[in-house]
Amino acid sequence: MIEMLPPIPENFALGVCDYPEHVPWDQWKQYPERQKQLGLTYVRVAEFAWSKMEPREGDFDWQWLDDAIEALDAAGLRVVMCTPTATPPAWLIRKHPEILPIGFDGHVRNFGSRKHYDHASLIYREHSRRITRAVAERYGRHPAVDGWQTDNEWGCHSTTRSYGGASAVAFRGWLEQKYGTLEALNQAWGNIFWSQEYTDWSQIDPPFNMPTDRNPSHVLDFNRFASDAVNEFQAEQVAIIRELSPGRWITHNYMMHFNEFDHYANSETIDFASWDSYPLGQVERAPLTEEEKVRWARTGHPDYVSWNHDVYRGLKGRRAFWVMEQGVGQVNWAPSNCIPVEGAIALWTAQAYAHGASCVSYFRWRAATIAQELMHSGLLRHDETLDRGGQEISRMEIAGRANGETPARVALLHDYESSWVYDVQPHSQNASYIRQTMLFYSALRGLGVDVDIRHPDSDLSGYAVIVAPALQLMGAERAAHLAGYANETILVFGPRTAYRTPTGRVQEDGQPGPLRDLAGQRLLNFDGLRPGLTVRAGGHEVETWAESYEPIDADVLMTYDDGPLAGKAAVTRHGNVVSIGAWSATLVTDVLDVLLGEAGVAAMRLPGGVRVSRRGSTEIWMNFDQAARQLPDGTEIGPVSFQFRG
Amino acid sequence: MIEMLPPIPENFALGVCDYPEHVPWDQWKQYPERQKQLGLTYVRVAEFAWSKMEPREGDFDWQWLDDAIEALDAAGLRVVMCTPTATPPAWLIRKHPEILPIGFDGHVRNFGSRKHYDHASLIYREHSRRITRAVAERYGRHPAVDGWQTDNEWGCHSTTRSYGGASAVAFRGWLEQKYGTLEALNQAWGNIFWSQEYTDWSQIDPPFNMPTDRNPSHVLDFNRFASDAVNEFQAEQVAIIRELSPGRWITHNYMMHFNEFDHYANSETIDFASWDSYPLGQVERAPLTEEEKVRWARTGHPDYVSWNHDVYRGLKGRRAFWVMEQGVGQVNWAPSNCIPVEGAIALWTAQAYAHGASCVSYFRWRAATIAQELMHSGLLRHDETLDRGGQEISRMEIAGRANGETPARVALLHDYESSWVYDVQPHSQNASYIRQTMLFYSALRGLGVDVDIRHPDSDLSGYAVIVAPALQLMGAERAAHLAGYANETILVFGPRTAYRTPTGRVQEDGQPGPLRDLAGQRLLNFDGLRPGLTVRAGGHEVETWAESYEPIDADVLMTYDDGPLAGKAAVTRHGNVVSIGAWSATLVTDVLDVLLGEAGVAAMRLPGGVRVSRRGSTEIWMNFDQAARQLPDGTEIGPVSFQFRG
Amino acid sequence: MIEMLPPIPENFALGVCDYPEHVPWDQWKQYPERQKQLGLTYVRVAEFAWSKMEPREGDFDWQWLDDAIEALDAAGLRVVMCTPTATPPAWLIRKHPEILPIGFDGHVRNFGSRKHYDHASLIYREHSRRITRAVAERYGRHPAVDGWQTDNEWGCHSTTRSYGGASAVAFRGWLEQKYGTLEALNQAWGNIFWSQEYTDWSQIDPPFNMPTDRNPSHVLDFNRFASDAVNEFQAEQVAIIRELSPGRWITHNYMMHFNEFDHYANSETIDFASWDSYPLGQVERAPLTEEEKVRWARTGHPDYVSWNHDVYRGLKGRRAFWVMEQGVGQVNWAPSNCIPVEGAIALWTAQAYAHGASCVSYFRWRAATIAQELMHSGLLRHDETLDRGGQEISRMEIAGRANGETPARVALLHDYESSWVYDVQPHSQNASYIRQTMLFYSALRGLGVDVDIRHPDSDLSGYAVIVAPALQLMGAERAAHLAGYANETILVFGPRTAYRTPTGRVQEDGQPGPLRDLAGQRLLNFDGLRPGLTVRAGGHEVETWAESYEPIDADVLMTYDDGPLAGKAAVTRHGNVVSIGAWSATLVTDVLDVLLGEAGVAAMRLPGGVRVSRRGSTEIWMNFDQAARQLPDGTEIGPVSFQFRG
Fold first, then answer.
1. Under DSSP, is residue B515 helix (H, G, I), strand (E, B) or coil?
2. Contact of B312 with B321, CB cutoff 8 Å
3. Looking at CA atoms only, how far is residue A419 from chain C in angstroms?
4. Residues near B158 by beta carbon (within 8 Å), at least 6 away in sequence
5. Whole-number mean pLDDT of chain A?
6. Domain for residue B612, yes or no?
């Protein structure tokens, strides 16, 4: 664990991602001055430039990058340098095709795009260290270089997990390391079921392509292994950069709502988290209804965006973070790619600031004229005129504000491992970890509350309310940790909490297992509701999931009105601990509203697309709707706009 | 063919599936007494326990199973023993990976779940016989062992057919055996079409992964081959059990609406059929509309369930059968898995009895705490308390009733081979063998009629009405067999009857080929209706399929009102033989109603989800709706309930 | 380029596709006389008959075909002979399995249907030439043989492109030939992006199965390579036929709306184009809404059918063409296969004539009784009675009419290469090259206008209006060519025109690049609209796509009313050049209506399914609706019917 850092930079700054290698020098050399004029501070370079840096093995060409950095420096810009390992070049892949990852379908993923490598490949690890060392030796102490980004978007395009090759071999070693004996592994996975017991480590494969369902414990451990491999891959680069680039910070640009590796563990070696924000593309890919997708098509969904701000701020404790790539127009990778409404770019920038970002760096300077992303927008059009997003940024007045603290009094617990095991057995077709956590997160945000998103095993002291929407994995240690807060803090558990032990089996004594004393209930039944099938609880419509409890020491706050669970408890309370078993946005909001009041956290019902966040002493009001809205104080907020107060 | 048996047991009994190997002995040993107290008679054990029985090749461990059987015996329970071949253990697969089956996509199906074997693998056959002999030698004469189940759910997870490896080799031999010469095969398959003629047996592959459609005759024979392989696989086990376990019965637990092998042929070697009934999961997978799926989500669809009862009763003639696995709550394998409404478990048990079951055995005792099925319900919850289903069973009063005869006077003809060739060329996207047969079956059940489902080539004497909904394959012999009943029995043929010869070609003299004299018509045209495209016939709305006839000796009962076939015959009658060409629930019901009356079979129009069946002298009235309904005699039947009368 | 030919035949004739090898000789020998009596002139034979011609390598059997041709000749019929290369026989595939193509999923496509070959396979090329020589030597000078068809439906079932094997090798050679150096290729493809630069030709693979998107330039060149391979494959056959069958014409039967190879280039070596018209199957596969699919289910969509007539007439300049296969009832390959309404077969025949066809040849004589197509209709039923389609043909009076000129004054530009690059990056889920071109084509046809569909680089002189709906690839040469017409002709450009250079990169100076002076505008923004998201322009609803322009010298004809592009130009005009950026059927119709009037091309708003075409001095009015319609002159046209006037 590295030492805590102050916000970088101290005051809110803007940046941009640029690719000098994509543009002829005579043309590109005009860019730094224009970037400076637009109010930008940081320029990220060299992200995918391995084949330009090292066209043939051991044959390096740095001139172009030396020139670019000099030009940026001359214009007074600060450089964010990258390791180019997201794109191993053709000569390397032809020499070592075993670097290529193997997809869930069993097919090798070919060269010709990006991220075509298995993180567990020892051969690729060696080349990753080699090129990292080369770049860090060259630029690690360059005065213009402010910090580093490792690789690009770990795991993008389902590349976290490779279902064969180097990963298959390394997985066996990882398991032997973890379990020591096959007896322990067989027990942990419940392999007696369906005669899945192993008698030799070499019998174990990645979990894919079986006649029917995979053992969730097998999947859980494979996901843990793959997550560890990504983290080790990064740690190797970080160690080299720390050695060769002293005093510089290191970050990584994570992705929206991506959960294929454990970001908490991943971020341990870096200084702060960054993420890549494309609110419009996100809407298309999010589990929203068609109506919601049309509604938020041009502004992004406020909570789906801010979820990521809050996750990445919380990754290393309440630490400032960056938006490393902020979309400024259409993306090119969603099924349909529309453009944002006027005001959205500024609103997203304000929203990032409001949630604690230190810097927002736009993607990208000039729209690419080549290859896969040539339909993606930039601040400049292909013809180098300033595009709509660039114009909007030039009119903004957000940069330079103090990067103050965020004051959340509510913590929401987020656990990647729980998400893996949830999603391998969702049990109801509309249920997913992301939908269930967003149910609670959106309720809190709609109540005007600031939320820290934190790992369940982290230090949670000081919060008034702790909400665990979908904490499926629960061992004795975690249960004791959470119980430690129950005297002074209100704890809220969502459906399926503590369903399983840490190895993905079910609690042998029933649910919620080691949390039973704390919650004061035991799980009776769970009901996976198909689309169109609903029940009611306390007058609220419940969809997707309903579970019932038998109170032991708890009080029953709400029961089911109808359906097979009629009369059984849907919500219980035991001291400060509330268990919510019903999937219902209105029920969750009602329950949380009461609890927040009790905990002294001001809550209010915000209209439509209005959200509020606090940073330092400033309140930032935001309206994501394309119509004006009335705020709680009676004043009006215009469509797609924000107000800084205080 | 084995000898006819009396019902086993004589009076209706209950059972349960249990897995002693999943639970520590000290915990499990309490179970038999609780099972007995719940009124259960039979306990099925050892179903998937190969790796527990034989942890390493040749190294057997029987102690745990000896103990379990003793404990069951001591509690007065009867044991159903299994062969564990549905789950070849890891050591066997690593030694002989060629046992693994190859999917329709050409990929090997890996170890890690179940059913991962090619039935045609000679290596696996040897191990199947070896483990069967070991189990049968150990327990074949144990006094507590009442009977046997072979393997588990033949063909589950699309494993009937392996598209390469051992099956590819065996398929060639099977073809040579069947046809003798390639000339005969080329003729039977019509291989002159598209130059598909073979000049060497080694040129023939399983039918998959071609640029376009597969030859239906090729598919038909491959499916026959694969079906035969399953049947031989079972026959080898049965022979060993008969040798080593004299006086015990043998059954197999078939699946709902599964048609990938010929169950008539498969059941020849066993004593009676069993099947596994999961009415809620079935609703999700059945070809029902979204509205219907919501309607029957918590009760199951009455006719989709009873179809299976009637199929498995009829498999070996009118012989008693078991429900080997009866779901008692949620399953874990449907897209969404809800729980049944109060009363449903008892209703399903009554329904099974009503349709002729001798025993209903519930799945499973305690909900699994490990691996793939840990979200599946049992009679006990994970915490060993009696779950909703268990409580419902404890209140039932069905066990002990006499296992009397079922008195159906209507036979519905069911033919697996016709289903294969129907579904390889459905021609209309909503058409399928199952939907077309259910159209007729539901009409009969909605008219309050008991139905025997029988193979078309079986002895059909004594029936008042014989309905052949979708008998697509028709040779001269089959036609003559059916014609033999036409003097005294009403015969009803559905669309696409006798479209093809036994090798899957079309009748050279047009349809219905050898049935033409009997039906007194010839097929004019068939019209595959897309969703939203309908026509009318005799005032009825027709969807999915419409075919027209030219009467030869037949009378026209109904013509098409509109569409391209307007004015042409939709329904014809020639003596006792009626041909229905229009896919219409109301038309089929109207026609059958009249014919039943003529045949002296009492018919009535039952309301909504009400059904009636007869067993011995008892009438069993059932209501699958969640509201009370009025019965034809004016009395009321409560929601999700049943009444025994007489 | 071969010499221009007069229409073949001079007067409109009918034909049929027949397969003597499918029917026993004694039965088949009755057919020629019946064909003659039905008014047919041409019979196409031997299309897939390789295994019958050459049952074993080098062992030929011609007797059956000699007999068939003699019988056809004796009946006064003319023979269309085929090369049987669409179906390499089993013995050849087993000897050379490397002939089999590799699908986009990386799996080999197996023997057992048709089109199972890689066009770039040198081994298969040799056998293709060998069998072509054998057939041409045998029948090339037979007096009954009028002409030839090569193979069958190039590229059918996605077989144009093979993603490995021979094609992978040949692709590298093709690239080296085209680019000379890797530097040139890397530049053309923009391989600096994501380090995709190649340093050795052997590093280049077909573009498939990567972690994420493929480089559009990579895809474009691979598609060009694959197209060239098909064309070379045909050219080799054509050269042999020309040598051995002097005086006979050669054609190929192309497919509906198929764009996987460049048909302009392909047709260079043949005399005229033919195509296979299955209007009902086409409706199911076309990008129409569910409502539209129901509406046109039984008549075909008038414009989707006529598009193909106009494409294939224009392929080699305004040259007569054939419909080689005209469906006469249901097909067997759509998701649902209904039958046409009364009158549709005659209407399609009249429509073919109206659009310039010389001959319509029906598919097929007798419905197949064997294999994959046994549910496909023919003129005869399986029982050899004349089916509905055959009866309709027997009553038609179209054959014998003069094969006059078609007088279109409007040209629509069609470019296969633009379609490839459009569809690899559609950017909006409902956008596709076919939908965008049909938007303009249907607007023109709905205005009663005859349309020539032409290659953009062909001689376009003499047209009053030239419409380029989706000409995405634009180099300086093409731009100059088009500019050459702008003085005297109105040019209309649709969205995304000139977006890219000929190698699939974006115009470095922005869009429309070299067309900027001509169009007088520059592209500002494009907006990919998701389903349900619309904007308005000039009062018209715009869906799927909206792009805005900055006028340079152009006038703004229409602006966007709302959305992010509000106030920006949606339609501009610069002299004779109009740019339409908004995807809107009503907007396009309104703009074209005005421009046609200005150009002196008579336009009128036709009701519903009514269309009109002109041939020679005859006007052909057609009604595809199943209700009568009023024509512009006040007279009525019956449902599904046509009128010849003048």
1. helix
2. yes
3. 23
4. A211, B103, B104, B260
5. 97
6. no
Q: Are A49 and A188 part of one and the same domain?
A: yes
Is residue C153 part of the annotated active site? The answer reads yes
pLDDT at A5: 67
B509 to chain C: closest CA residue: C383
Helical ranges in A514-628 per DSSP H: 516-519, 585-598
Residue A297 in domain: no
* pLDDT band at residue C3 using 50, 70 and 90 as cut-offs: low
- Are B452 and B466 spatial neighbours (Cβ–Cβ below 8 Å)? no
Nearest chain B CA: its distance from C331 CA (Å): 9
- Same domain, residue pair A504 and A577: yes
Q: How many C-beta atoms surround the C-beta of residue A596 within 10 A?
A: 22
Distance CA A626, CA A636 (A): 13
Inside any domain, residue B132: yes
| Residue C95, domain CATH | 3.20.20.80
Q: Give the number of domains in chain A.
A: 3
Same domain as A167, residue A53: yes
The catalytically annotated residue of A21, A260, A284, A325 is: A325
Catalytic residue among B21, B260, B325, B547: B325
Same domain, yes or no: B40 and B149: yes
Distance CA C279, CA C443 (A): 20
Helix (H) or strand (E) holding B354: helix B344-354
Residues of A in contact with C524 (CB under 8 A): 381
pLDDT of residue B646: 87
- Does one domain contain both C582 and C615? no
The residue from A21, A47, A54, A153 that is catalytic is A153
Give the residue on A whose Cα is nearest the Cα of B160: A211
pLDDT at position C534 over 50: yes
Q: Are residues A112 and A56 in the same domain?
A: yes
In-domain check, residue A627? yes
> pLDDT tens digits, residue range A259-303?
999 999 999 999 999 999 999 999 999 999 999 999 999 999 999
- Domain region containing A56: 41-270
* Residues C318 and C243 placed together within one structural domain of the fold: yes
Chain C residues with beta carbon closer than 8 angstroms to that of B522: 383
Per-residue pLDDT reduced to its tens digit, C255-308: 999 999 999 999 999 999 999 999 999 999 999 999 999 999 999 999 999 999
Neighbours of chain A (3+ CB pairs under 8 A): B, C
Q: Is C325 a catalytic residue?
A: yes
Chains B, C: CB pairs < 8 Å: 199
Of B116, B294, B375, the CB nearest to A211: B116
Is residue A261 within 8 Å of A283, Cβ to Cβ?
no
pLDDT grade for A3, boundaries at 50, 70 and 90: low
| CB atoms B112 and A507 under 8 Å | no
Selecting from A89, A107, A387 the residue whose C-beta is nearest the C-beta of C197 gives A89
Question: Does the distance separating the beta carbons of C293 and B209 come in below 8 Å?
Answer: no
Q: What is the mean pLDDT of chain C?
A: 97
Q: Is the Cβ–Cβ distance between C43 and C18 less than 8 Å?
A: yes
| pLDDT at residue number A6 | 73
A-chain residues within 8 Å CB-CB of B335? Answer: 429, 530
- The mean predicted confidence, pLDDT, of chain B is 97
Interchain CB contacts (distance < 8 Å): A and B: 199
Q: Please tell me which residue of chain A has the smallest CA distance to C530.
A: A336
Q: Would you state the pLDDT for residue B7? A: 80
Q: Which residue of B has its CA nearest to C151?
A: B194
Decide if A645 contacts A618 (C-beta within 8 A).
yes
Please indicate whether, in this complex, the C-beta atoms of B94 and A510 are within 8 angstroms of each other: no
Q: In order along chain B (646 residues), what is the average pLDDT of each group of 10 residues?
A: 69 98 98 98 98 98 98 98 98 98 97 98 98 98 98 98 98 98 98 98 98 98 98 98 98 97 98 98 97 98 98 93 98 98 98 98 98 98 98 97 95 98 98 98 98 98 98 98 97 98 98 98 98 98 98 98 98 98 98 98 96 97 98 97 96
Q: Give the Å distances, CA to CA, from C614 to A318, C311, C343, C463, C618.
A: 76, 16, 21, 16, 6
